[in-house]
Amino acid sequence: NLWRTTSEEKREVERLEKPIYNSLRQAAEVHRQVRKYIRSILKPGMLMIDLCETLENTVRHIVDCAFTMAFNPMFNPLLEASKEATNTGIKEAGIDVRLCDVGAAIQEVMESYEVEINGKTYQVKSIRNLNGHSIGSYQIHAGKSVPIVKGGEQTKMEEGEFYAIETFGSTGKGYVREDLECSHYMKNFDVGHIPLRLPRAKQLLGTINKHFSTLAFCRRYLDRLGETKYLMALKNLCDAGIVQPYPPLCDVKGSYVSQFEHTILLRPTCKEVVSRGDDY
After folding, report:
1. Does residue 183 sit in helix, strand or coil?
2. Helix (H) or strand (E) holding 164
3. 140: exposed, middle or buried (Cβ count in 10 Å: 0-12, 13-18, 19+)
4. How many whole angstroms separate alpha carbon 278 and alpha carbon 167?
5. For residue 57, what pLDDT is reported?
């Protein structure tokens, strides 16, 4: 509102936070450049491992942002549904806005789309058990969830918070479950000291603390660092509640899912979509 944009007090708060804002903007600029490069080289038949390693060798900054690409125009309405739903979530988000209201607006837009795939028409559904989320320093999921369906929490967004506004549109049931082999992990942010009996688990935790802290990692990252024969130690860390496994999430077999995501900052005087670019 006008008071926020003209208040000298609010502008002073922004000046104090400028170093943090600029760090986030730097990460967003890296993301824009990297995704532009990836779009230029991505093509059908490309191995996922080659794509992942190209990405990882290009970017070393963190901002939560995502897009979906398809090489068949048949899928364009599905991509458009999640893109517009994400833009709606961004538009609705703001200081003192209830999270449930953002979710309801997202679902209304998402589920207004239909997509015809191989002669069959599907209504696009919001995946009800996936959410956007608040972001903290070294805490990619910082406690608040931004639903993408109606009926969520009455909790309000607050001044100074960072959010990942992300939506997932599906031609399936609109509900995901854990499936397939797990390769991604993250140390729990709030975990205290937990005694470990296995020396190998202690050593592996030291590696995780040194190189990843509480940011996500995958087993290939451990391989690169020279870790070998660590699966039992990693399981021990997961069983102890120190590390959280994040297996793939799947809707029903044969369904298609599209995702778009941006990071926003609720500055004292305005809302800034830090990861916005010319592409989306």
Report:
1. coil
2. strand 162-170
3. middle
4. 19
5. 78
Q: Which residue has the tokens 């068949």?
A: 72
User: What are the structure tokens assigned to 235, written together?
Assistant: 């399981």
Neighbours of 193 (CB within 10 A): 6
129 vs 8, which has greater pLDDT? Answer: 129
Dist CA 174 CA 67 (whole Å): 19
Q: How far is the CA of 269 from the CAs of 10, 93, 140, 144, 187, in angstroms? A: 6, 14, 24, 22, 34
Token couple for 166: 């992300």
The answer to which of 48-52, 58-62, 106-110 has the lowest mean pLDDT is: 58-62
Token digits of residue 43 = 């093509």
Whole-number pLDDT of residue 54: 86
Inter-residue contact 177 to 247 (CB < 8 Å): no
Burial class (CB in 10 A: 0-12, 13-18, 19+), 257: buried
Place of tokens 């899928």: 75
Distance CA 94, CA 270 (A): 8
Q: What is the 3-state secondary structure (H, E, C) of 222-269?
A: HHHCCCCCCHHHHHHHHHCCCEEEECCEECCCCCCEEEEEEEEEECCC
Strand partners, 243: 187
The pTM of this model reads 0.91
pLDDT at 60 over 90: no
